[in-house]
Specification:
14 helices, three-stranded antiparallel β-sheet, single chain, DNA polymerase, domain 1, Double Stranded RNA Binding Domain
């Protein structure tokens, strides 16, 4: 031991081990506080104390990163904790063992996201891996603050340019685009973070939720409607297209307002064509509940036509190139059809918006607003208008086809 000394900056700079094995020079002002000097010249401030009968040593920090005055103040603070019944070494060990954000994300994905619908779970996993982990992965979950959430969501809302890709031999259909605002993605990430930190409270990882009151970004609703002429052009393009199965996928989306994944993964066993009912398994629905949905006569007729084309032993309504799997994606087909039908700003999304449809019915005369690409409504309003949507959609398709 180095004995008791008056620890000053001057003494700390001049202190040497002088052949002794890591001597500690104890302060004559704060009991237990000292400066340990190693043979290699490293100098570390320490605090020796007794807690519940055990002799313990806490390493405060190295000199000169810590000054003598700062280290002495920290020693005093630690001694107050000890007098209050808290062992600073145990507390530090608990912090070192505390879960990181990466640990929390892993548990959240494993124990919660796996119970959600496949598409929703895939989107959440993507956001966590691409947005959250690069920013927070190595930080302790207890250290995330509301300001951190606000900063991350603001960055996500700004959008980001697509990453550079190696040149390909094939010519791109569209040039790579720069950054575009993505307020909707930021809002979805905020909701996912709020749920994750709520679970963190339940799992006793932290006591509060930094994303509980995250600020939602304003989103512009997609209000693109197809009038009768557009429906007619679309109907003609679908009728003339060589890819009949994919054309029928678009028709079924229009006649049902169902989610794209529900249509692509539809199985024959789900349909009772005589009773005109589509029973959607809980595993394929967003709410994870069994849905029994009435379907229109036009859809029943369409399904009977498709049934004649699909092999009897195939379970899928729309089998893919591998008959054991359904069609996976229709983006290229839709881009082709949309271009031929001259439909600008229309995409195949989740479902028709019943509220916008009902509002359109109240206006005088055509063009009748039939929603094809808009935001998702509440379930009750959709159910109220579904039978009207499907019946009038089928009639509009036929009327437009005859008039053009």
């Amino acid at each position: 031991m180095g004995g008791r000394v008056n620890l000053t900056e001057r003494f700390a700079k001049a202190a040497r081990a002088d052949g002794r094995k890591s001597p500690i020079f104890y302060d004559d002002e704060v009991i237990g506080f000292g400066l340990q000097v190693r043979d290699n010249g490293r100098k570390t401030f320490t605090l020796d104390y007794t807690f519940e009968g055990r002799r313990r040593r806490y390493f405060i920090g190295d000199h000169p990163a810590w000054t003598v005055a700062a280290a002495r103040d920290e020693a005093r603070r630690l001694k107050r904790e000890i007098d209050a019944g808290t062992d600073p070494l145990d507390r530090r060990d608990e912090r070192w063992a505390a879960p990181t954000v990466a640990d929390l994300v892993e548990r959240y994905l494993k124990e919660h996201v796996t119970k959600q619908a496949a598409d929703a779970g895939k989107d959440i996993r993507s956001m966590m891996e691409k947005l959250v982990l690069p920013a927070w992965g190595n930080r302790k979950a207890v250290d995330i603050r509301t300001s951190d959430v606000d900063k991350l969501l603001a960055e996500v809302a700004k959008g980001r340019a697509r990453p550079a890709k190696a040149a390909t031999k094939q010519k791109r259909l569209k040039p790579l685009q720069g950054a575009r605002p993505t307020p909707g993605r930021a809002n979805r990430l905020g909701s996912a973070l709020r749920k994750m930190f709520n679970l963190a409270i339940r799992w006793e990882i932290r006591t509060d939720n930094p994303a509980a009151c995250f600020i939602r970004n304003p989103e512009n609703p997609r209000e693109r409607f197809l009038d009768l002429k557009e429906i007619g052009r679309l109907s003609e393009v679908l009728a003339a297209h060589k890819n009949k199965p994919f054309a029928d996928i678009i028709r079924m989306l229009m006649l049902t307002g169902a989610r794209r994944g529900e249509v692509l993964n539809a199985r024959w066993e789900q349909f009772d064509l005589d009773a005109a009912v589509w029973t959607k398994p809980a595993a394929t629905t967003k709410q994870r509940r069994l849905h029994r949905t009435p379907i229109s006569g036009a859809l029943v007729q369409l399904l009977r036509t498709i049934r004649q084309r699909v092999p009897e032993d195939c379970p899928w309504v729309f089998p893919g190139q591998d008959p054991e799997k359904p069609v996976h994606e229709i983006k290229r087909f839709w881009d082709d059809v949309r271009g031929k039908a001259k439909l600008e700003g229309v995409r195949v999304l989740n479902r028709a918006e019943a509220r916008a449809y009902e509002a359109g019915r109240g206006s005088a005369g055509p063009p009748m607003a039939l929603t094809f690409n808009v935001t998702t409504p509440d379930a009750s309003s959709f159910r109220r208008a579904q039978s009207q949507i499907t019946a009038e959609m089928a009639a509009a398709l036929e009327r437009a086809r005859r008039n053009l």
